[in-house]
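Co-fold these.
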Amino acid sequence: MEPLSNLLSSKKDYYAGALMTLIGVGAILEARHYNLGTLFHMGPGFFPIILGVTMTGLGIVIAAAAVTEGGDQLVIPKPEWRAWACILAGPILFIFLGNYGGLVPATFACVFVSAMGDREATLKSSLILATGITFFGVLLFSYLLQVSLPMWRWGGV
Amino acid sequence: MIYQALSDLFDGFRVALELHNIGFTFLGVLLGNVVGVLPGMGVLATISILLPLTFGMKPVAAILMLAGVFYGSQYGGAICSILLNLPCHPPHAVTCLDGYPLTKQGKGGVALGITVIASFVGASWGITEMTFLAPVLVQVALKFGPAEVCSLMLLGLLAGSTLARGSPIKGVAMTVFGLLLGIVGADIETGTPRFAFGMTELDDGVEIVALALGLFGIAEFMNTVNQTAPIDTKYTNVRLRDMWPSKADFKLALAPMLRGTVLGSLCSLIPGTGPTIASFVSYAVEKKVSRTPERFGHGALEGVACPEASTHSSVQGDFIPTMSLGIPGDAVMALLLGALTIQGIVPGPQLISQHPDVFWGLVASFWVGNIMLVILNVPMIGLWVKLLTIPYRYLYPSALFFICIGVYSTNNDMFQVGETIVIGVFGYILLQLGFHPAPILLGFVLGPRFEENFRRAMLISRGDLMVFLERPISAFFVFLCVVLIVAQIVVRLRSNGRPKTEEAIPRPAE
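Predicted complex below.
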């Protein structure tokens, strides 16, 4: 066993195990509402409960293994807030503009905004990329593959 | 039996050589080669993006193209490793060790030439193996009842999660998580919506395209953005005539190629050990049998030839359990099975007899595709090398758009784009906590069939769990599961305290 100070330090696998246990317990709590049935005639709740229990157990083992064996410290990488925000904002804008503006604005916004996430990206380079992909995307998806999303639409689905 | 296989293969060629099937095979291997070359693009993400586009296609063409992306990317991946020292694709990480030193010595062209030859040799053997072995396996598997199928799936899931990269127990946790995700939606027997949390959009289950693109697209981009090393193009000037290996080089590489081929095909027969493990094992073996092991790591041609042959032999061999038993060995195979299911083809031992055009067409297309790849890679090497220099900052925004439109077009539903984003964020958290998300897909694809067979087996045995041990074939699979778990525990206890060797290899993007 390691000294207590090590035990309490934030090892990566404590969080990993905790997260798995959380998922497991969550699954059990939710699956309680389904009919369990018997081993002979299994109801919809049986399999989820087995998985939930397994998951909870695995989570505990992962965390416990970190106590006895060391394991890596949790290294929080230098947060890339701008990049993360841009990568997530791209698809979110795609959903929004896809519903209220059509394929063209959705594509342009998605590519442009997510491209701005890279540290070396400039306004100009992102604009060029977004224009190019929009042109290509409309050609491929609207004309060639006939995706049901209209190129333009104003407000509302 | 042999005659039968050959005549079936002949029929397969008739399918594979139909003009539009050739076209889609070509498209697949071409795209595969491109994403293989591009640093930071994963083959899983590519196949998932293409998946929705195949819904309207005929099943044969769809599966030919998607499979082509997979083995095509293996050809491209080596270029990245040898010329840039970037392990873009895990199976080729080990090729960096000797490929890049060769490049620095000005012999990058020869290394690439040998790679193409080794790849073709390895692939040829893998395909031959599939031609003759798969029908035999099917004969056995057709006799399986629900209990056997269940135990076999359990073995496949365990092997797939523990033998892959990273911590075995975390791999198992990811598989269970995949199984849980597979439950989402209406129960097959009673129709009760499970884990839908009141969202009617989830009644049909989690969309496989959204899951794959969240995990291998969005999560991967969040992990890789601003982390890519600047690409060093100093050595990328390779011309066609540099690729032709001299007689001495060829002689040096021939035996390693054959050894790698055999090792790769052995690895592919063990469920869960895909091309990545095959290449690592064969590199280690080659170093051990070499009379001059000190040359390894400083540009030994054998260190390129052996793992490359092994990778390709294993890549083709991976299709054997997937297509003949319906048990995928890794995430890519799981995705291909998902594609088959979407086309209305039930994977399993009955596939060969019910859809001979799909199976034999696929085998024949492997020959067609691999020959195309050799032709693509030799004269067009200059073009592939140019592709290497496309910076990541142009790639990922474009890929994000393809992800959005791809997920949307699966069901014409924006809800699923949102689903992808949520899965992506969660996938990123998993990555940070040291989980490899690939087994999630394995569990997700096998989950519903596993549950169905489990329930059926219990119904037949009147709720007696001993049925899994009383039937000999099932007992054998259960025995293998136990061996696998015990072996993992022994390895873990033994390696305790020793430094991990895996971390020495740069982390490849997948």
